[in-house]
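Bit of a strange request maybe. I'm writing a small parser for structure token strings and I need a real example to test against, not something I typed by hand. Could someone generate the tokens for this chain?
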Amino acid sequence: MKLDSPCSLYLRRLAPSGRKSMASQLKQIKHILEWSGSTEEQPFHNLLYAEIECVKRQLVSNGKSARTINHAINGLKAIVKTGFLMGQTHEKSWLQVQAIKSMKISPSKRGSALSSESVQALLKDCALDKRPIGIRDTAILAVFLATGIRRFEFSNLTTANYDKKRHSLQITQGKGDKARCQYLADWAIPYLHAWLRIRGEDNGYLFNPFHSRRPNPTDKLSTSSLYQIVTSRTEMTLAKSSAPHDLRRTFITQLLRQNVDLSTASKLAGHASLATTQIYDKRGDEVTREAALSLSFEE
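Reply from user aminoacidic:
Good idea to test on real output. This should exercise your parser:
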């Protein structure tokens, strides 16, 4: 029996969206190292501390962002660790590679969060479309905004993942294969139930494309379809398209606006690190200004 290479095993353990992104970065690193052949079969697990530092410098020279470089280096670290666990990498090499430091990054300026007024206008306008596809799209927007889940998590939702009594969604294929329970805000329930009345109670994927004007429960909406639906619906209402990830930013930002503590917001977002959640905070300078102005020493 042929065993997977450390690189191949590492990639197979990633979520589909993360796997595609990391495979692309490893392919670039393969070219930097002037290796030939299949990316998954390359000996990334044998890279030494100095070699990975050299790769990091080359990525900087190529104009890659600190965030992109850190993502690539973390991938190499994980492959070296996988090689160690498989008995193909020396412990000393593994420990040295783990000591490589990440590059410092500033909070992301990319993307934006919708205002409360924009969210209300978006849902109200989409709900005016009484066609089955309009009811579905309104439910899609509502679930994205009420849960902040990722596109690939959304795409994989099934009817079995939805608990009507608890108003919760079980995310079984989260990032890093981590499962979590995501509760739906009360305002989002009517939108979802309106869609379920059209979809029917058959087992299958929760959100579906239409075939012959009917939703097909055995078929799921792809991540690209979800992107197109969200961008087109936001463009029609707000005259500016927003991506599903902007709705995720909106969810996290609104939690923080409502004084939900960072730790809880991080759990609801399915983040492994509080620092990641902070990057999604799009509240702006008014928050720090209000905090400073509210400072008082009066009892």
